Amino acid sequence: MMREARILQELPRRLRAWYRRARRDLPWRRTRDPYRIWLAETMLQQTRVAAVVPYYERFLARFPTLAALAAAPVDEVLKLWAGLGYYARARNFHAAAQEVMARHSGRVPKRLDALLALPGVGRYTAGAIRSIGFNLPAPVLDGNVARILARLFAIHQDVKAAETQKRLWGLAEALVPPRHARDFNQAMMELGAVVCVPRSPACGECPVADLCEARRLGEQRRLPRKPKRKAVPHYDVGLGVVWRRGRVLIARRHDNALLGGLWEFPGGKREGEEPLAETVRREVKEEAGLDVAVAEHLMTYGHAYSHFRVTLHVFACRSTRGRPRPLGCAACRWVRVDELGDYAFPAGSRKIIQALREGAR
Fold first, then answer.
1. Which DSSP string corresponds to 291-327?
2. What is the pTM of this model?
3. Residues with catalytic roles
4. Which CATH architecture fits 234-360?
């Protein structure tokens, strides 16, 4: 208990002093605008900083204010987000901006209950907005902070378990200084990102290494404890580049589906051992109600998502009968190759689009 009390007493001051010296110069650290901080925290969820920076800057160039974002069509928002992944973040952020305009006179709310009522805003994001945007003493607990706390206090239980999460949130709240929440919470995130990293923590560079119970016990590389990862499933997917009169068919995914709201070339998972050409024929029929003749194989390549991997088998097809209609998708349409850039496609479609553009030259 004495050691825990010492951590609670000394860590906030020492960590803030370290942060002022060592913090990285990131674009969202140059602002106190709650909208911009909210955007950064949304983009940074499960995404590396290096990947986020150019998206963040492009997004703000187009939507410099929350009002500008709220007034835009969601398709334009998704197009700017395309390639960043986890597209529900973009749809929720857009919907939340519209709610803030409608219910809060365009001002990002400070109250916890008001923030949690917005689409896509959970306890972590609310805490980040309140502490970094408004300097309110609100705790945050993301993967970096959970890892630091598990090591500082030598917590051996699974950090994802409900009881452990409760304890970690309690510690995070106890550590936040009343008047310096902005710098302290960012310091914790920074420490987890550059020093107290998952596999090889740089304890020699840590400003609070002497407070760390895991280091004292020689357990810093074994903590935090997490459940074993399940095997990542793999699927073969057949996709059709369906042509008619110089145009190709694209389909828009339902908003509540994986990659919801994005456009794609029609296709889907292979069933059993069916020939991949038959997969394409069946999926195009189920998705867009269109009969197609499958021609040559165009390309095969792999793509990884957060919880599974796919091998994409792409075939050229010719429409033989029927008019496309959205049966298994939200919308479908014929477009020219030079129009594909007007639509928001996921990263997995980039190779196909590039091949089509090169073939059209």
1. EEEEEEEEEEEEEE-SS-EEEEEEEEEEEEE-----S
2. 0.88
3. 41
4. Alpha-Beta Complex (3.90)
